[in-house]
Design brief:
Helix content is 38%, strand content 16%. The chain has 14 helices and 12 strands.
Length: 324
């Protein structure tokens, strides 16, 4: 049994442990939550998925899981303190339990705190947790299976005659991670991408921001996504993704889609940086946030790094000074 009640992005990175889990055990069950259940249900390799909800049905589902089986191993794959993981470890019957113990409450036999070190990528941390849990060696990389229905729906609704770039504006922590839309339009112009077909994605609350970008960039169109799987389908078809630090970046890592990602200063790019074959992380100085990244810095770093093969930015006159 694997336990991870977390957000979409963290789940994509944390599920790097699944390959080794499937190599080690005949069946793998999973306890998740409302935020990541869409990802878990799409992974047909999982034998049983239990979703923790704050309702009678949710409680009944967990109770059924508790009574159904005794596991050879229980792994709480959080790389930090989680009261939910501790509770699940206490009530799930398992021969060996691996996870992050509390100071006083210690239901895990193998304590993840003993192998935790600062400033390493989350996928590397998952490898260490898998090793501590006794899993066979496997391929540790971000894991995301895009539902076939989402792929079919995307192809049906978006029958374009040329490739596109996906621009994601939104992040859950808007004040720290979202880049001003004015910066996005100036960045696209400064990189010479104004003639490209750009699919603009944002949360429903940010629809006005999506509309602003579409008005400013002649090749931009709004993307109507009903859920994260729709976004994942777009990522799978995109030739480049530009995004702030959020689950979209980790989906790019799982699908090996080229990505330009914007990060707050500090260890964020180290712990959650893109793992695509082609990736560029643009980071604010230590102590600063994504909104503080100057457009000039972003353009200059992109020009130094270059764009992915097949995308040739055409430099056009701009009010932005691209100082190097």
């Amino acid at each position: 049994m694997i336990c991870n009640i977390g957000r979409v992005g963290d789940t994509i990175l944390s599920n790097a442990i699944l390959d080794s889990a499937f190599r080690t055990c005949a069946t793998v069950d999973y306890i998740g939550g409302k935020q990541n259940m869409e990802l878990l249900y799409a992974d047909t390799r999982l034998e049983q998925v239990t979703v923790v909800r704050n309702s009678f049905a949710g409680f009944a589902s967990v109770l059924k899981t508790i009574l159904r089986a005794r596991y050879d191993g229980f792994i709480g794959i959080k790389d930090c303190y989680s009261s939910t993981n501790l509770i699940m470890a206490a009530i799930i019957r398992s021969r060996v339990k691996t996870g992050w113990n509390g100071e006083r409450f210690r239901p895990f036999h193998r304590d993840v705190r003993s192998i935790s070190v600062p400033a390493i990528h989350k996928v590397e941390m998952m490898r260490r947790i898998g090793q501590l849990a006794g899993l066979e060696a496997g391929e540790y990389k971000p894991s995301l299976i895009v539902a076939p229905k989402a792929i079919e729906e995307f192809r049906r609704k978006n029958e374009w005659d040329k490739p596109f770039i996906l621009l994601n504006l939104s992040a859950t922590d808007a004040s720290a991670r979202m880049w001003p839309v004015e910066n996005w339009t100036r960045y696209v112009q400064g990189c010479g991408l104004t003639e490209e077909r750009i699919l603009v994605n944002g949360l429903p609350r940010d629809r006005h921001l999506v509309d602003y970008v579409c008005e400013k960039l002649p090749g931009a169109v709004a993307f109507q996504a009903k859920g994260f799987m729709d976004v994942a389908a777009a990522i799978a078809h995109a030739r480049l993704v530009m995004s702030v630090d959020t689950g979209v970046v980790h989906a790019c890592s799982a699908l090996d889609t080229p990505v330009v990602a914007f990060y707050c200063g500090g260890e964020f790019a180290i712990k959650y940086g893109p793992l695509s074959t082609w990736g560029l992380a643009i980071q604010a100085p230590v102590g600063y946030r994504v909104p503080d990244i100057p457009v000039e810095q972003a353009i200059a770093e992109t020009q130094r790094h270059g764009l992915p093969p097949g995308i040739v930015g055409r430099q056009r006159p701009s009010t932005v000074s691209s100082r190097t």
